[in-house]
Amino acid sequence: MAGAGRMAWQRAAVPHAKAYARAPAKGYPAAQARANNIPRFGAGKGFDPMADHTREMRKTNPTARLALCGMMAALIFVATYFIKLPMAMTNGYVHLGDGFILLAAALLGWAAVPAAAIGSMLADLLGGYVTYLLPTLLIKAAVAAVAVLAVRAKAEWFRVLGFILAEAVMVAGYFVVEWLFLGYGFAAASASVLGNTMQGLSGVVIGLLLIPLMKRIKV
C-alpha cells in the first residue's frame, strides 16, 4: 500500500514538475498556471502588497495631512500678521498671507479651506481687528476654495487664471463688507480696492513661485 501510494503521488506530481520545467525565466504564465493548478507566488487570498501599502498610507495620511494643515495655518498667520502694511482709510492692512493660502491649496486640497480661514482670522484677532473676524473667516475660506479648484486644472494658464479669480473674490469680498456691513462708506471701501488688488497680485506671484519648490511634498 505504501509503495502504491508513493507511485500514485509521483504520477500526480509529474505534470506539475513538467509545468515548472516549462516555465519561462520571468515567471510562469498565469493562464497556464491556472490550467495546471500551479499556485502563483502572491496569488493567495488576501496577499496584495500594494493594497497593504495603500491601507498603511490611508492610516498615516490623515495624521500627516492634519499636521501639514496646522503648519500651513501657522505660516498663513505669520505672513499675514508680521508682514503687513496698515491702511488708515479702512482701518485694515495689506499683507503677504494670500500667497501661502494659494500654496496651501496646492499642498492640502480642500483642507486648505480651514487652514486659510483660521490662520487669517487669528491674525485679525491678535491684531485687534475684531470687526473683521467673521468677514475674514468667510472670505479667506472662499479664496482657498477657488484656489483648490484652480490647482486641479490641467492647463497652467487656467491655474494662473484661477488664482487671479481667487484673489478677485478677496478684493470684492472686502469691498462689499467695508461698504455695506462695516459702514465705512463707498469712498473708503473703494480706496481699499487698490491695496487689496496689490495684495492679491503679490499673493499670486508668491504662490506661483512657492508651489514648484514644494511639489516634492506628498500628502
The gist of it:
This protein has helices spanning about 1-20, 30-35, 50-80, 95-110, 110-125, 135-150, 155-180, 185-215; strands at about 85, 90-95. The chain is mainly α.
Percent of residues in helical segments?
A: over 70%
By CATH, the topology of the largest domain is: Arp2/3 complex 21 kDa subunit ARPC3
Tell me the span between the first and last alpha carbons. Answer: 64 Å
Largest sheet: 2 strands, antiparallel
Structural class computed from helices and strand pairing? mainly alpha
Q: Please report which band the strand proportion falls in: under 5%, 5-15%, 15-25%, 25-35%, 35-45% or over 45%.
A: under 5%
**Strand/helix succession:** HHHEEHHHHH
Using the coordinates above, name the CATH class of the largest domain: Mainly Alpha
**Overall strand count:** 2
Mean pLDDT: 79
In total, the number of domains comes to 2
Q: Record the strand order, biggest sheet.
A: 1-2
Apparent shape: globular
Instruction: Point out poorly predicted stretches.
Output: 17-25, 38-60
The total count of helices amounts to 8
CATH architecture of the largest domain: Orthogonal Bundle
Q: Rg to the nearest angstrom?
A: 30 Å
